[in-house]
């Protein structure tokens, strides 16, 4: 068995404790990943005129909503101007 792996007992309590440890590690990883490399990395991206993945995603969804609204408004306008069908 590798030195960095410790044996885990197969009791329900040991499995539950191990699962809690894994969940805690996963939460810490998620926090680190959501930080996008940290404030210095994000600032570097912005100074280079780039968006981070999170801000690009938010920006594109805002643009998509605005585009969708303008298309809907244009369609309504065209329908109002169209002659009535006989």
Q: In what range is the share of β-strand residues?
A: under 5%
Instruction: Catalogue the unreliable spans.
Output: none
Number of helices: 3
Please give the domain count: 2
Characterize the largest beta sheet: strand count, sense, and whether it forms a barrel. none
Radius of gyration: 26 Å
Q: State the share of residues found in helices, binned by percent.
A: over 70%
Order of helices and strands: HHH
Secondary-structure-based class equals mainly alpha
- Strand segment count: 0
What best-fitting shape do the alpha-carbon axes yield?
elongated
Distance between the termini: 83 Å
Q: Which SSEs are present, and which pair or pack?
A:
Layout: H1 12-34, H2 39-47, H3 53-81
Index terms:
3 helices, 2 domains, elongated
Brief summary:
With 86 residues, this protein is an all-alpha fold. It is built from 3 helices and no strands. It has 2 domains: 11-48; 54-79.
Walk me through this protein's architecture.
This protein has 86 residues and is mostly helical. The chain has 2 domains: 11-48; 54-79. It is built from 3 helices and no strands. The longest helix has 29 residues, at 53-81. The radius of gyration is 26 Å and the shape is elongated.
